Amino acid sequence: MSVTPEGYGRPVLKRIIVLGAGAVGSYYGALLSRKNDVLLVGRRPHIEAINSRGLILSGEVEGVFKVRGATEISEVPDGSLLLLTTKAHDSERAVASIRDRLGEGVVILVLQNGLGNEEVVRRVVGERAEVIRGLVTSGIEFREPGRIFVRKVGETILGRGGREEEIARIFNECGLETRLSEDMPREIWRKLVMNCVINPLTALLRVPDNEVAADSLRDLRRRIVEECVAVARAEGVNLDMGILEELEGVIPSYRNFSSMCQDIMRGKRTEIDFLNGKVVELGRRHGIETPVNEAMVSLIRFLEGRR
Ligand SMILES: NC(=O)c1ccc[n+]([C@@H]2O[C@H](COP(=O)([O-])OP(=O)(O)OC[C@H]3O[C@@H](n4cnc5c(N)ncnc54)[C@H](OP(=O)(O)O)[C@@H]3O)[C@@H](O)[C@H]2O)c1
To answer: Which of 120, 133, 147, 266 has the maximal Cβ count within 10 Å?
Structure first.
């Protein structure tokens, strides 16, 4: 990538660091390594496997990618694009570990599910980096150290206005189809509503996503969505119950196990606080009752407590 200045005198992004190389981070890092200098930062067994055998992708994208890996970084060089792909609850600690190592002109792209994720990162880094949000619609699974399974290739969604155009160009050049949205808050809520229905139900019932399309769960799905839509609208987001129809149309085609279901089955912490938990929290702020989402949070916390 070139290092010459572009528009507004800002340097172009010239190096990519993935912080939290699990399923999503490894997938993005692998594809971006086609044309960029990429460093994956993750846990030791995965990084050792990548450094010795390469990163192996199978499924809808196949190949062995020679990407560099590390378990920690001593600096985030000037002009780096840092993809934050830890789970939402790990953001604060992960970003705090690099806060004092951030060079000039670093952009942090938060590629996670949930609501309020970028605010957490902004609180940690302050003015030291530009923080923007992206949405992942692919379905990626971590199989074993060094091996990632690409179940479904989807687009990446970014907003407009900052470095997003440049990032979209970098992603598209590497085969990561990326769309710039005019209404990012709506996109974030749309994804959130899908996650608020699919994730806790699949985790509680321990079934793949398509099974929560069962008729017996129709009323429950509708009530979760109604509460989310009421809170979204109180937040000024342009969302309506059309999202329920959309959801009912797509769930039967999803054959994977949601990340929350996988987390519960592996005895790991889930992202419930950033999903249904955020709907409950914001509902309280607006005086909107969210009993069904509250029940989802309590039930998932119960399961987490048995770890
Ligand atoms: N997978 C998907 O298909 C998908 C699709 C859309 C959105 N998302 C979202 O994308 C985000 C990432 O999901 P994922 O499925 O990729 O999760 P993941 O496989 O658990 O990957 C996150 C990785 O980050 C590691 N990590 C945590 N803190 C770290 C630190 N300080 N330094 C280095 N590594 C660290 C984790 O290690 P430990 O596990 O040891 O903590 C884990 O290996 C989530 O918000 C998820 O909801 C995922």
So the answer is: 133
